[in-house]
UniProtKB/TrEMBL annotation:
The lineage of its organism: Bacteria, environmental samples. It comes from uncultured bacterium contig00015. Keywords: Membrane, Transmembrane, Transmembrane helix. The keyword Transmembrane helix applies. This is Uncharacterized protein. The chain crosses the membrane at residues 12-33, 181-202, 214-239.
Length: 331
């Protein structure tokens, strides 16, 4: 006969296996996935502060200067040099030992798929004329200015199929996991957890006194299937709905904070790399367009001043966070 303390220790081992492989490891993978996509968006936002490369800037460029560039694939030479053709310039991009991104955005898609990471040697499978975004260091290499990747400033190469005007919005909305629990670590963790429970149960198969332990271990293997059967199916649907809604709100938050990245702390205006004056104004109330819940993203330019100031509206933050009672709305 087994005493109660022995039974408790067996169930405790089963619980620890379940909690670790079915809970802690996937949750840790979710945090890692969120961190990885957050770092991707941060790098993209940092590149937005640098100027777009054109022919005039190309002629004046200094060695190891950070630029952005958009264009179409022209050709691939030397097995790892991508030639990208822009409006007035064709520039080489060194793809050696870097990872590129595919951004599949369909027109009208509300929650796009996350970008797919591909190795540089797969770029040759893309057709000529595919749109590409490059951000990184432009430096002299093989007697020509080339986009290269460095340890301090890794090169970002994104292939996309949307309009260039929708690229920033599309990347910020797409560069996040749809289901954070189901990440790249989760399937491996579930398989290892199931095999561990099977091994634990097999050690007691020939011992009748441990029959309850064997049955509990075998039942625990199928815990990941509970979300697929009632009532777990309903809870799964609710979880997916709330997760989708939270994903949209986080994307709105990131998009709404983009205009303020051009400004330093405690500054209301600045001069962009294009020479334009940029800033925000403060209003005591929301604009009239917000009366019906249609808070605009873009406010018309202030044409009453000598130098136009582009005002980007952050007013719909009040819609996302109605608990804020500040008398002034930042624009």
């Amino acid at each position: 006969m087994r005493d109660n303390s022995t039974k408790f220790s067996d169930f405790l081992v089963i619980f620890i296996i379940i909690a670790f492989f079915y809970g802690l490891v996937p949750i840790a993978g979710a945090f890692f996935s969120r961190y990885r996509w957050g770092r991707f968006r941060k790098r993209f936002n940092e590149l937005r502060l640098h100027p777009l490369l054109n022919y005039s800037r190309y002629r004046q460029v200094k060695n190891e200067t950070v630029f952005r560039f958009t264009g179409e694939i022209e050709s691939i030479t030397d097995a790892h040099t991508l030639w990208v053709k822009g409006e007035d310039l064709t520039i080489p991009v060194s793809l050696k030992k870097i990872r590129c991104w595919l951004l599949p955005i369909s027109e009208g898609e509300r929650v796009p798929e996350p970008p797919e990471q591909i190795r540089w040697n797969r770029v040759s499978t893309l057709s000529e004329g595919a749109k590409v975004y490059i951000g990184g260091v432009l430096k002299m290499q093989d007697d020509r200015l080339t986009f290269v990747s460095t340890k301090e400033r890794p090169l970002m190469v994104i292939f996309y199929n949307c309009r260039e005007a929708d690229l920033t919005d599309g990347i910020i909305r797409a560069a996040r996991t749809r289901n954070e629990y189901w990440n790249t670590i989760t399937p491996v963790s579930l398989v290892i957890g199931a095999l561990t429970l099977i091994y634990f149960a097999s050690t007691f198969l020939n011992r009748p006194a441990f029959r309850l332990t064997v049955i509990s271990s075998l039942i625990a293997i199928f815990i990941p299937l509970l979300p697929m059967i009632p009532p777990g199916l309903l809870l799964t649907a609710l979880y997916r709905r709330f997760a989708w809604h939270a994903r949209r709100l986080r994307a709105y938050w990131d998009i709404s904070s983009l205009p303020m990245r051009y400004l330093q702390h405690d500054e209301e205006t600045c001069v962009l790399c294009s020479g334009e004056k940029y800033g925000f104004i403060k209003l005591n109330s929301l604009p009239p367009e917000a009366a019906d819940g249609k808070i605009p993203f873009l406010i018309p330019e202030n044409t009453g001043t000598e130098k136009q100031t582009k005002c980007i509206s952050l007013a719909y933050l009040m819609k996302l966070h109605p608990c804020r009672k500040s008398p002034k709305t930042r624009l």
